[in-house]
User: What shape does this take?
Amino acid sequence: MGASLEDVRAANLSLVLRHILVQPGTISRAAIATQAGITRATVSRLADELVSAGLVHELAPSSETGRGRPGIPLGPRPGMAIGLGLEINISYISACAIDLTGEVLSLKTIHGDFAGTKPDAVMADVAELGGRVLAAAQAKSPVDNPLFVGSGLALPGLVSSDALMLAPNLGWRDLPMASLLGPLTPLDPVVVANEADLAAFAVANPRPGVPNGPASFIYVSGEVGIGAGIIINHNPLSGAHGWSGEIGHICVDPAGPTCSCGASGCLEAYLGLRALASNAGMPEGSTADEIVEAAHRGSLRAQAAIADGGAALGRALAAVVNTVDIPEIILGGIVASIGDDLLPAVRDELRARVLQSAWSNPEVRIAGNPANLAVIGAAHRTLERLVVDPIIWTARPD
Ligand SMILES: [Zn+2]
Assistant: This one.
């Protein structure tokens, strides 16, 4: 059975939209036809469809195109299609509305202590926050009737399609997705995933529909918990259940302290924010920046806590690199905040323990824009659904 004509049209519409998103404001119908290998007539018809749906607009032709009729550049229409990202973490909840150009139209974070909370109450707070952020984005949009494509939720734990299995630092366990998401119904939750996986998605797709981030990397996310999102050849390495990347629970010392998961000597028990503060002799609730400041002011305990955290991270990452052969590591979250101080210990451990290091020494760097990556990734994932299948959105009655 071949693909139906409708399937071909949907795939080509997605391809045309993606070319426009990758080269916004510069690409013409003729250039798309050349790059995508589709006839000029077909591209014109599909681009017209995207324009009449309001997803794409035509810009003024450049006056410097030389001889001949200049092509009309196309770009995503600002403020037209809006995706909402939502995030629950241990010390904050966050919401972020992004349009198809990648502009953050509204972003709000509420700080608090969400450990040991009741899921219903937190989900109601997230729904309220998300509603406010969406309303602010719709008010800011230059479009009268923007298209809302749904919301994506980032959670700090093991997520499957029908349940949140475990979020150890929240104290949440075995929550059926249908009831967990109940309060979000008005926000049309269409994506639910682990926060590190969504942050990695934002690194791999720096703008909605534009997968031009690094091809293969390990993204390390950190707050009270430590996690990772792994991308290989532009695709997430999700695992059999979608639960891969739980590097916070790699054992770096069996004789080490007890972790929130019940095991001993996990990476998280050295590098998680609470563990770092406790090892630094600082009060619970200290931020990563405060711990770094204490180390820089000369606190030997803070310096030792960071060095131990870096060594633990290097040991855990060496195990991952030896297993999956991805020598590019990007640090985000609190791990980025303390990254400069962690890096020497991380690099020492990687050099000593990664078998391939003599030929391909793992490169560790701090995410370029580490703030809010998970909630941004959640919004980009909801918008990705539109880019993959724009046809249902172009058919919208208006
Ligand atoms: Zn653990």
The two ends are 35 Å apart (CA to CA). The pocket of zinc ion is lined by residues 249, 259, 261, 263, 266, 268 (CB under 6 Å).
